[in-house]
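Quick start: what a row looks like.
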Amino acid sequence: MSRFTYTADMLAFLRAKYPKMGKPALTQAFNAQFGTDKTVSNIKTVLSNHKIRCGRKTGAILRGRLRVATKEQAAFIAEGYKKWSLERLTAEFNQQFGTDKTVNQIRSFTRNHKLKSGRTGQFEKGNPAHNKGIKGWMPGGNAQKSQFKKGHMPASHKPVGSERICSKGGFVMVKVAEPRTWRMKHVIEWEQHNPPLKKGECVTFKDNNPLNWPIDNLMLVTRAQLAVMNKLKLGKAPAEFKEAARTLADITMKRCQILREQAA
């Protein structure tokens, strides 16, 4: 393949135009002037080989001199941005000028040149919604056949009164209301014989067995008492020592209170 030779006119054209435009625009102008199909890489090479300089500082592009667009293209972007999305604008731009610009390139151009679309992204007052008159979303194909019908109960549904074991604490849980309201069975048992629990109160098992929920195995403690019992390693004390462990927790908390008051 014979090597392409740049004529004196071509080199003069590049020397005259390079100070005024970036390499992509220069390439487009060169091809239009001489009927060639040179790429930006080709033009970069000839500029380097012939030591043709633009005269601008590195990275500097004069405002109004567009790196990725001619004046005609810039006007097209400015007008199109007011009525099209960036994706549509990019497609229309490439079709109009035979380019392969990306959405990110067009977006950067609009930002660098402070172009505004004028759109807010909100529905304008008086404009009907696109789904006006449509009740719900109806998928196509056979999807509707597999949808739950109104009033349908899934196979996993548990009726009120059902019991299960809590995966975290091992307690027996009882379903007390629809659709998914569960309570600890030992708390329900306690409140059948005593007033409802107050804030900060909880019910523990004397024998440490969370499945043994009858009332004679349950004991009321505050969360503060339980925390001290656990700190003293008495939270899992045998059933016959649980009352004493709770009393010792009260004594420990009272002692700490007296010491704080004396230090104040």
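That is the whole record. Residues 59-66 have pLDDT under 50 and may be disordered. The longest helix spans residues 242-263.
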